[in-house]
Write a structure and sequence with these properties.
There is one protein chain. The chain is α+β, with helices and mostly antiparallel strands. It has one domain: Nucleoside Triphosphate Pyrophosphohydrolase, CATH 3.90.79. It has four helices and nine strands. Strands 1, 2, 3, 4, 5, 6 and 7 form a seven-stranded mixed sheet that branches. A two-stranded antiparallel ribbon has the order 8-9. A hairpin with a 3-residue loop joins β1 and β2. The radius of gyration is 16 Å and the shape is globular. The two termini are 17 Å apart.
């Protein structure tokens, strides 16, 4: 499948699927992330590994770029694009947002609205090493393969079971929940 057909398939699946609904806004702090696709020979997703520093609550965790909704943000989508630019140096003009993947909650009362987008790769990635240790471009086929091998397809594994290993890192927690949902959406819609 060529890149434009792959993009259209993912975009159609994202827009057609049912996604997790928002929780009670009084109980959670709103945040947004961008599950950002890159299309080279095959689609990949962009992940960050948070910095390894003492006292940093997200030290070493794998995540999608994103952060807290600010009052100046027009909406959660704007938050995801702003954070992508602030964290990675990726301009919103170089990202096509496919749509929302819904809402995912963390154990520390954050509600993450995840968006799926595609980056044309016209920016050079620049990140602050105080917040981000490394950047990963993980093939979507690898993640889908792990999904199948671990028997995640068609079911919701509990948070302790749900992991996606890649090289020397493991995607877990709420990021793994977003990855799981995205794979289910793309391969079952």
């Amino acid at each position: 499948m060529d890149n434009s057909a792959c993009y259209e398939k993912i975009k159609s699946a994202v827009r057609a699927a049912d996604h997790p609904q928002p929780p009670d806004p009084d109980l959670f702090q709103p945040t947004s992330v961008m599950a950002l696709f890159m299309f080279d020979s095959d689609p990949s997703l962009l992940f960050i590994q948070k910095a390894d520093r003492a006292g940093y609550p997200w030290a070493n965790q794998m995540a999608f770029p994103g952060g807290h909704v600010d009052e100046m943000d027009e909406n959660p989508r704007a938050t995801a694009l702003r954070e992508l630019n602030e964290e990675m140096g990726i301009a919103s003009d170089n990202v096509r947002v496919m749509g929302s993947l819904g809402h995912f909650q963390t154990l520390n009362n954050k509600d993450i609205q995840a968006f799926a987008g595609v980056w044309n790769q016209k920016d050079d990635i620049r990140f602050d090493t105080y917040e981000i240790q490394r950047v990963f471009k993980i093939p979507f086929a690898h993640l889908a393969g792990v999904h199948r091998e671990k028997g995640y397809a068609g079911r919701r594994p509990n948070i302790m079971e749900l992991t996606y290993p890649y090289e020397d890192v493991i995607i877990w927690g709420v990021t793994a929940k977003i990855v799981h949902h995205l794979i289910e959406v793309v391969y079952t819609t």
